Amino acid sequence: MVKTENKLQHVQVPNNMCLSHELEPFDLYIYATIKRFMNSTTREAWPSMQTLKELTNSGQSKIAASISKLNGRYFDIIYKNGRKKYLFSKRYKNFEPFSNEFLDKQDLTPLEKSYIIAAQQYMFKDLQDLGKVSFSIKDLADLINMPEWAIYKCDRELQKKGYLSIVKTKNRDFNTGLPMSERLFNMELLGQKIIWLLSKNNERIKKNNQQITKLQKDLKIMKKLLLQKDKQIKELATSTIAAQDVVVKI
Fold first, then answer.
1. Model pTM?
2. Contact partners, residue 153, CB within 8 Å, separation at least 6
3. Which helix (H) or strand (E) holds 29?
4. How far is Cα 20 from Cα 32, in angstroms, rounded to an integer?
5. What pLDDT, in 10s, does the model give residues 190-233?
6. Which residues, at least 6 apart from 134, have a Cβ–Cβ distance to it below 8 Å?
């Protein structure tokens, strides 16, 4: 019984935390690390700064900056008997689960954990133990508010560690025309079997896959419209220059 409970221990991170570009993936990592100490009854957590530094292998100023951004949005800092506590009063229907096994992985850097926490929402999870990301690096960078260089770095290191495979697809990038790649994350090795173990998560996975598909279609339509607009602007500029030449000749 204890073993089953341990397998199901996890932290729930709300979806869309980075969409407004006010938060970054590292902020989600700090949120998850604090929330793992939450009492399920009082919904309060009170890890010390020293504990957070040790668990995230990060500096105090960087952690404090994330806490400041999260405070009042995703938790509230309160003081009881002179002790600082984090109150998680809000509950979210749409979230991604992260196991303590994943959060405690010693071979992953804070940057890599932050990347995976932010990107998991955008993974297709219809294949057991695999998370598939089909977005281009440019689109993914915009969705999770992470620099492209950081994604390239994480992808390279995760491949070396055996957690990620990148495969070419028949699909072409809308802007460049080059073949697109898909990222296949080995979520079992990452300690993320929790995704498929939660009893109600099958329906959530199905809904999440539908949302990702819709987002991909919306992005494709938006890019097409932008290209059409860009073409119209260029045509207008060309016709304006041509009209100016006529006036000069007259």
1. 0.81
2. 111
3. helix 25-35
4. 19
5. 999 999 988 566 666 666 677 777 777 666 666 556 555 665 56
6. 124, 169, 171, 180, 182, 212, 216
